[in-house]
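Weekly modeling sync, notes
Attendees: S.R. (lead), two postdocs, one rotation student

Agenda item 3: backlog of single-chain predictions. S.R. asked that every request posted to the team notebook include the full sequence so nobody has to chase files. The rotation student volunteered to paste the first one in as an example of the format we agreed on. Action items at the bottom.

Example entry:
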Amino acid sequence: MGPHDVQVVSWQRRSSGPQATFSSSRGGGGSSYMEEMYFAWLENPQSVHKSWDSFFRKASEEASSGLVQPQPPLVIPKSRSALSGGTKTSKLVEDHLAVQSLIRAYQIRGHHVAQLDPLGILDADLDSFVPSDLITTIDKLGEHPNPFALSYRALLHLLTAFYDLREADLDKEFQLPTTTFIGGSESTLSLREIIRRLESTYCQHIGLEFMFINDVEQCQWIRQKFETPGIMQFSSQEKRTLLARLVRSMRFEDFLARKWSSEKRFGLEGCEVMIPALKTIIDKSSEMRIETVILGMPHRGRLNVLANVIRKDLEQIFCQFDPKLEAADEGSGDVKYHLGMYHERINRATNRNITLSLVANPSHLEAVDPVVQGKTKAEQFYRGDLEGKKVMSILVHGDAAFAGQGVVYETFHLSDLPSYTTNGTVHVVVNNQIGFTTDPRMARSSPYPTDVARVVNAPIFHVNADDPEAVIYVCSVAAEWRNTFNKDVVVDLVCYRRRGHNEMDEPMFTQPLMYKQIHRQVPVLKKYADRLIAEGTVTLQEFEEEIAKYDRICEEAFGRSKDKKILDIKHWLDSPWPGFFNVDGEPKSMTCPATGIPEDTLTHIGTVASSVPLEGFKIHTGLSRILRGRADMTKNRTVDWALAEYMAFGSLLQEGIHVRLSGQDVERGTFSHRHHVLHDQDVDRRTCVPMNHLWPDQAPYTVCNSSLSEYGVLGFELGYAMASPNALVLWEAQFGDFHNTAQCIIDQFISTGQAKWVRHNGIVLLLPHGMEGMGPEHSSARPERFLQMSNDDSDAYPVFTEDFEVSQLYDCNWIVVNCSTPASYFHVLRRQILLPFRKPLIIFTPKSLLRHPEAKSSFDRMVSGTSFQRVIPEDGAAAQAPEQVRRLIFCTGKVYYDLVKERSSQGLEEQVAITRLEQISPFPFDLVKQEAKKYPGAELVWCQEEHKNMSYYDYISPRFMTILSRARHIWYVGRDPAAAPATGNRNTHLVSLKKFLDTAFNLKAFEGKTF
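Predicted structure, as returned to the notebook:
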């Protein structure tokens, strides 16, 4: 870092007018610092930056010639009287430092006076204020007067009051510091020219925020890209291409407005430049060898992006507006401005293949951000693209959502984490300067909507969207930044929204003055076309021909769209899985093979799981005991919960299935049961993942602790699972109720994704659940929410075909299970991959059962030929004489062990049978009917440890009634309805537990009662 990077001088404008604030990064005491620099130079000239070395040598030469008396240089005082002696050397130091401080002030604060608002009524940020006497520029400094810059009189006041420079200094030559490129090949410039060039760079249509970045090389890179004189030049062909792209962007919106004036389409009017902006980012990235670009965006401008960036067939878009269009069989579909797309094509700017994927998303703004990042990460992983040189992401945001939605921060926070980084994302903010109807002053506290990006040192480029060339240059630099430094970057397109929130909305209700100006605003296409015609780049005839050409394309596509009778949603897939659903051109059979594996495979995995594959690796003594326990279980042919999971993962890795487990503390496990990552107790950061040492040619296993985020991380893992069907992707909540803060991803993507977007997804959610007397938090994973969103019909009596189990799974929107044995957990994980399709899997995992002595499974339940049991029937004494059984209790999960213990203590093994539902949804109608039929004289009871208004009862009750044809009743046993999921009092928990267990085995409890 050079000396000019130490002294920080910035000027800030408040409502009271210009005010300078001087500060030093050393915390004050600037004079003592300069003295230290000087004396350090006297001792060793090489110990200081070369610019200081040159300066001190020149001053010494003057002193040795008798012109001045040498003395330590001083920092800028507020007045000349503070100088000791007023020597020529002191003035030289003062003036040069003042100029350097002035340059730095422009670099730091110049964006606050840039002409960013196309409407000319706002400042684009919330903390800048220009007093009225500074509005008029006296154009004595440059060729481009800036109505937001200082007036000549105010500039002189600033120079005199805060930099101690005079009007006479304006024509004095100054040595330029190494931290600026405004001189180009020149090393000195007059102060007048310095100010002119700084204003031209920082105070016109581009506002740069980058000086907060803590890397000098990166700051210098940005300075060079924008400060170098004449760097923003465009050839005639580049200008013509830009004009053609603007024509397509604007005329597409005009065409929709003419044909469907009363339809919502969330058009791009007011920010038509976004289309050439995105195409420039893609072109530049393709030039830098990017092969795949994954985009996420809200609904505004989505149809235009589909048409003119992704290049979807126009007739496919236009047919969406036909009210008579019939839906195909797949799901409910979604509105046209929520749909995605996948397209491989040639990039004409580079003649290279490019794959573009626009991810479908709902109206929940910014929810798609982490999904895009997860999909991008997966694509990079499967291609071995560890540095993001082939696959990248672009995220388009709205200004109000970018500032207001917390998932934006969560997504940024993932950007540099090893297991989540996508090596940089280009963020494009469509800054309407308004939300739906909410003024920015009511919508955010930060000066800019983009300030959240500062947390990850992402440069922010604000640009006036009515200056197409400035936009294109900024986007080109942004793409180059991403592919050079592999870091995020933000392009803030400061624009306006010509219509209301949608085409049916009236914005004059709430923003009358803004929309009066908008109605007077000349469209950007006309302004840019007039400019090019005036300078002779195109003729009026060529411009009109370009418009006519695209209008003709739209009309022809419109004609073809009328032939579309049925909407095939498969045309809108954003993540196709070629070859997955078919074998040799034929659909896969609707069957699922047995999920058991050979015993020698189980033994091998158990042996590795109980060892440390690396030599000289010292593990914790407590962990040694855990590994010995695993070895003993393997020897005895049994598994607990953690070992069953190990064997499920390990067997899939052997079969070439990538396994990724993500979440807070998943490497060890919240309950210290997993320990998939071992840590050397003597060597910092030395770790071992035994799972990756199972087989010579196995698939990789990724287990990664996440940041303390649910919304962002679950969205990320969902996107990861979208990329390939041949991977088991799991997200584990630290506690089951932590999914509350990720509910948007669950509701909008996981539960409904296939119905809306034909998007199969095999993500697995592991949600620890169980009433353990630990209070209302972290007890319940809220099973009732998942069951309420399940789409199987409680009143429809099913037809039991040979493939009922698999076809039922195919028809459901997700699978909900609560396993009571490690073997069940093992099988359901393997079934998730062996099914001929993909469905989300929700597993309510245990806490106390992780170490329960009875919650273990024999190898016999896991070897070849065995499978997942949707229902585990009674196999004790009651099953031997079913006609003698007086009560059949159905349950799920951990409460089974409480019931078995209580039955034994009361000696009711022959009179009470207990059946477990391992799969709750889709409901196992066939097996439940079979169990009820087996015990014809028994009362039927549903027992759960949760409160009656929660969990399973409201879901299972009507389905029991349907399958039993209402000939028999099923009674409820469990805790009474409540508002909170569990009590915070341990004694109250035990009392309520004993109460419902007593009721469950009181064989006279329901006598005389009506259902």
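Discussion: group reviewed the output briefly. The chain has four domains: 3-205, 236-572, 599-769+818-861, 879-1001.
Action items: rotation student to repeat for the remaining queue; S.R. to check formatting next week.
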